[in-house]
Every structure is written in structure tokens, then in C-alpha cells.
Predict the 3D structure of the following.
Amino acid sequence: MMFIGIRNPHRYLAALLLGFAFCLSAQADAPPMERIIWNKTPIRLPLQVGTERLVHFPGAVRINVPPERVSDLRTQSVDGTAYWLASSPFETTRILVQEIDSSRTFLLDLTASEKNGGTGPVTVLVPKQNSTKPFAETGNQNQEMVRLDYVTLTRFAAQQMYAPTRLLKNDPRIHRIPLHTPDEISLVRGGAVAARPLISWLSNAGLYITVVRLQNRSDLPLSLDPRDLHGQWLAATFQHARLLPAGKEADTTSVYLISARPFEESF
């Protein structure tokens, strides 16, 4: 390799690599993009006081902020991106966002807190609609797609959790999203099983899948039943359907939960 016009090519190359590594580190530290498909259900958007959060819409929008919220919520809109910055905590506030070209209206429920708010950017997607096919045919295809998505999502999540790293493959239809939940939740009725949400994804079909770790706290073996789960789930699949007593090697397993809304809204 020949360097032209550089007095010390080795030092130049080292500096170049150092700068490249710094850029990669900065990108790795950036919060991931959360993608939400608009299905006419209000979108929950938690904010962290003092940190600006960006929401990207399909087109240019106008934003209607209630008068009582103007003083503690800075709102700006540029080329289809909303910029929200909360100056103080506030309870759930309904915000109407209207797309200028299509007149489509999005509903967002904003909250703000000192520590537990979200900071990552959000992209709002609109599902494509095909009205040229008969209703019955479209309905049958949608039902089949949902059944296939349950299997695909569950298999994908299980592979991400348990497969060797060399076998892991990304799926462009499935995107990881952040979780806004406590470290431990009361998911299983009875209180004998500790539950901790681990990771969540959103598919391009608008379905969410979340992996929750379950651990037996009792001295007795337990059988797991989806009917004992709190929340609204489209499907629940246990990695193992039976837990040994606390302290045994098999006292822990995972459950894969599929929902139509983000985990914290379905629980």
C-alpha cells in the first residue's frame, strides 16, 4: 500500500483507525430505533425529563398540544419529525398528530418522568392496504399470515435466546425494541414464580414478541399454564412447561409472549 503526500503513513493509518473505532463506539451507544405500526390504537410514548425524543411520521404533520401542557412540553415539527422535550414530569396526556397531505390522524399518549422515560427515536409506520381483493379472500390470507407469524416469531425469539452465536441470523422483518418495565413483574398468578422481562421485538406485521424469564420461588415443582398469566396475549409458549423446586438446576425457564401492543401496554 502506498501513501502519497503523507509524511508518516503508519501514524496516519493508526489515527484513521482510532477515529473509525470512535465512530463505531458512538453508534453502538446510541439508543435503538423503535418502530411502531399504527393500528388506530393510541401510541404510548414515555419521555424522560430533560432529554429530547424524536418521533418520525410517514409525512409532514401538524401537532395539537393541549393548552395546559404547553408550559412543560416543548413541541417542534420539521419535515414529518416531531421533537418533544419535557421540562417537568406529567401524567398521561393525549396528543393529536395530523398528517397534512392525507389528513390521517395519529393519537399519542405522552407521559414524562425523571428517570424511567424513553429516550430512543421512534418511527411510526402505516401498514399497506390492498383493497382490490375480495373481503373473504383477504380475510383468509390475513388469518393464515397471523398463524404463521406466531410460529415464526416464537422460533426467532427462541433462537436468539438459546442458539449458538454462529447460528444466529437477523431477520429484516423483525426489529428489536426497548422495554419500559420494572426488572421484576407479577406475571404468573399465585406469586410463586418470579418473572423478569428480558427482550422484545416488533415484526413488520405489527405483532410484538417478548421473552420473559420465569423462576420458581417455592419448594415444590410447578406446572406452567398460559391461563395463569396476567395480561392480554395472542399466544404464550413456554420453553419448558414444568419447573423444579427453587434451587434446582431446572427451576428457571422462559416464556415467549406475542401481543398486538407493546409489552408494557399488554401486561
The chain has two domains: 34-125, 135-266. The first strand starts at residue 34 and ends at 37. The chain has three helices and 16 strands.
